[in-house]
Specification:
The chain is an alpha+beta fold. Strands 22, 25, 26, 27, 28, 29, 30, 31, 32 and 33 form a ten-stranded antiparallel β-sheet that branches. Strands 18-13-8-9-10-19 form a six-stranded mixed β-sheet. It has a five-stranded mixed β-sheet with strand order 3-4-6-5-7, with helices on both faces.
């Protein structure tokens, strides 16, 4: 919430700064055209815009058509599995560059976000300190005022106001002051004044009182507390003070003769000549600095009466500036705060309705050769790490022969092929995948200050061609990032000694590293370093995993670290007819070891919508069935969920179906369009009703129907968007039967 407010204040501060620059540039013209009173209240307009962090959102009406260069299937690029079904055919979207770019953006954003938290805290403390300083200073002045002044009778005040104003006199001031909003006090200097001078003083100060100038000064002071970091607000305060005195002067002398004007000026000069103290904040006074006095006197001698037309124009212009600044502030606020809320949703929630999902990790060397292939399965508070040897045999139609997984990874679209191989071989969904290189391991380990590991044997290996130099002593020890990479890469020393079990032992060492890293480093210190982690991963990782979710899953893994089990797919190492060694998986073992701990997740990157749909026996009649409104995947299910910001448990009255922005949305039923509208939560939305069934289509980019229009089933009504409170492009779909919300997935044909 603090960051939310801080960002809004920054935006209003920027708008106020821009408005101030505009008024300053225009001042040579406006001074000749409009009165000082107009300038005085224009500064009020600017100040109002600086404390109104309203939010205005304009819905997007134009669908975003994906650029073919970004989402076309490229032959020479790695692709990411995106199981969105178009009819009966699975499509694969080439988003490598886009994902990597977004990952980097997310990393930078997360890094910046951590800095914004600090800045927001500094701003808040500064605001509180500024407020306390002003309150203490004001109350000290009141305290001294009561001690060093005395109440006097001033019947002359009745000529100017019938309000109850206490009059005091003090030797501590030289200029008359009006202080207090609810209990006003007129403080007069303890000097001799003739009746004419006294009348001039009373006329001036009661004019301030009638115009509520003291309230204006309090308002300025409040804005200065909020925007204490912006020097522009102090400039505004000074200019408002100057225009306040000039406009007050002109109000007082508007009906005076030339002789009376001269006496009025002489009164000010007399008070200035006896000056001993500066004007006190949150008060109105009569004197000012010499430069300002010169301008005041010039304005008095050259006072101009403005026509009614000029007055009307000035009022209209003031309203235009006010509306313009508020509108600009609202639009910018709407844009940036929406982005901030979306970021909060991305950081604090996952599209998963639960914490059960599968994560494929591909660790590669500088030549894209697989060192680690591991499926991490999160289920019911437990984590199972299933390692798959890189020499695992894979039957490929493309190669027309048996190949190793590491060879598959190095082929065209290798990431996708390995994902498919793991998914098909193990008969489990792969929710997320990440391919990271050894540079990422090195930098992450170094960023957390190294790690303690058991080195199983003395290791000494040099390969100048690969720039690989390993030298480690047996035993448990603290290892740097470089040393950890050496340990993970080691198979044998130059003298021929090495792991008796070859890659199996190397896999176990890799599992030890992951287990120890989770146990030792997934703590508060690691979380505090998360901005660095984000940057490292963004630069060294290919993934379909939203990096902005990392913080949540770090905390999740921290809770599960005592319940982690590591396994290796059971199999045997065999040579084919050419003498090449392959790791042949025992298929029976796959079923018993792998499929049991792995659960099909509710995830935005999991299986298509058709596979997540419950059995339709729950639907009572055919009339209760509805058509699938969009080709996509369920990213959020029906039912209760925790709000990511308020932490309040709220009902999610529909399902969210993820699909690319601009994807066609069709009516799920035959019926009548009863609503086509926009609100801040649903964005652009459409309601179609038929008898007892009511369907809602929200977060749309565009709407293609009108209220009252008849539509048939599967008729185009709009396109997928991310309007309203949306974290990304999707369709929010609701179904009501007899006025009650039901799970749409139950009713989809």
């Amino acid at each position: 919430m603090l960051v939310y407010i801080f960002k809004a204040i920054l935006i209003t501060s920027l708008i106020g700064t821009a408005a101030t620059l505009l008024l300053t540039i225009m001042r040579p013209i406006t001074r000749k055209t409009f009165s000082s009173g107009w300038h005085y209240y224009m500064w009020l307009v600017v100040l109002v815009s600086m404390i109104l962090p309203i939010r205005i959102s304009i819905p997007e009406q134009t669908p975003v058509v994906p650029n073919s260069e970004m989402v076309g299937v490229a032959q020479n690029e790695t692709i990411i599995y995106n199981p969105i079904q178009m009819g009966e055919q699975e499509t694969f979207v080439d988003v490598r560059e886009e994902v990597l770019a977004n990952s980097k953006i997310d990393a930078i954003s997360e890094y910046a976000q951590s800095k914004v938290y600090g800045l927001a805290f500094v701003w808040f403390i500064g605001m509180i300190l500024t407020f306390v300083y002003k309150i203490i200073g004001y109350n000290l002045f009141l305290f001294n005022l009561r001690r060093r002044s005395s109440i006097i009778s001033c019947p002359e005040l009745l000529k100017y106001t019938d309000k109850a104003i206490t009059t005091r006199t003090s030797e501590e001031i030289s200029s008359p002051l009006m202080i207090g909003v609810f209990r006003p006090t007129l403080l007069l200097p303890a000097i001799e004044m003739n009746p004419e001078q006294l009348n001039n003083v009373l006329a001036h100060e009661t004019t301030h009182f009638k115009r509520k100038d003291i309230m204006y000064k309090w308002f300025i002071s409040m804005v200065k507390c909020i925007h204490w970091f912006n020097p522009i607000v102090y400039y505004i305060s000074k200019q408002a003070d100057i225009e306040c005195e000039i406009s007050c002067d002109l109000e007082v002398v508007k009906d005076m003769s030339e002789e009376q004007e001269t006496n009025y000026i002489d009164t000010i000069l007399t008070l200035l000549a006896t000056g001993r103290r500066k004007k006190v904040a949150l008060t109105t006074g009569m004197t000012s600095d010499k430069k300002t006095l010169k301008r005041r006197f010039t304005m008095i001698k050259n006072k101009v009466k403005f026509s009614r037309k000029t007055v009307i124009i000035s009022i209209v212009l003031a309203l235009v500036v006010l509306c313009g600044t508020v509108l600009a502030s609202g639009l910018i606020n709407g844009k940036f705060i929406n982005e901030y809320e979306n970021k909060l949703l991305a950081v604090n929630t996952d599209a998963r309705e639960n914490d059960n999902f599968n994560f494929l990790i591909l660790g590669v060397d500088e030549n894209n050769r697989a060192d680690t292939i591991m499926l991490l399965s999160f289920k019911d508070g437990n984590v199972t790490g299933t390692s798959i040897p890189r020499d695992t045999a894979f039957i490929s139609k493309e190669f027309d022969r048996k190949v190793k997984l590491t060879e598959v990874l190095n082929s065209e679209n290798g990431n996708q092929k390995v994902i498919d191989a793991v998914r098909d071989t193990l008969s489990v969904p792969v929710t997320y995948y990440a391919k990271l290189n050894l540079s990422a391991v090195k930098e992450i380990v170094d960023s957390v200050g190294g790690i303690e590991l058991d080195v199983p044997m003395d290791m000494e290996y040099d390969d100048p061609h690969k720039n690989l130099h390993i030298k480690l002593k047996q035993g448990r020890q603290a290892l740097s990032g470089d040393a950890v990479c050496s340990l993970l890469q080691f198979r044998r020393s130059n003298d021929g000694t090495g792991y008796a079990q070859g890659d199996m032992t190397r896999i176990e060492v890799g599992q030890q590293f992951i287990s120890e890293f989770i146990s030792q480093k997934l703590n508060k210190e690691f979380i505090n370093k998360s901005p660095d982690i984000f940057k490292i991963l963004a630069e060294n990782m290919e993934t379909n995993y939203p990096i902005s979710n990392l913080m949540n899953d770090i905390k999740l893994l921290d809770k599960m670290k005592s319940n982690i089990e590591f396994r290796i797919i059971d199999g045997t190492l065999n040579a084919d007819e050419t003498g090449i060694m392959f790791y042949d998986i025992n298929n029976g073992e796959i079923v018993s070891v792998v499929s049991e701990p792995i659960l099909v997740p509710n995830s935005e990157t999991s299986s298509p919508i058709q596979s997540q749909k419950p059995h339709l026996e729950e639907a009572e009649t055919d009339a209760d069935l509805v058509n699938n409104p969009v080709d996509g995947q369920i990213s959020r299910n029906f039912g209760k969920r925790e709000h990511p910001i308020t932490k309040e448990i709220k009902e999610h009255n529909g399902i969210d179906i993820k699909a690319p922005e601009g994807t066609d949305v069709v009516s799920s039923i035959s019926g009548t369009v009863t609503e086509v509208d926009f609100d801040s939560e649903k964005g652009n939305y459409i309601v179609v009703e038929s008898g007892s069934i009511k369907t809602v289509y929200a977060q749309l980019a565009t709407t293609n129907v009108k209220m009252g229009q008849k539509v048939g089933p599967k008729q185009l009504i709009g396109t997928v968007g991310k309007t309203g409170n949306a974290t990304g492009a999707h369709l929010h779909f609701e179904v009501m039967v007899d006025g009650e919300y039901v799970d749409p997935a139950v009713y989809i044909k």
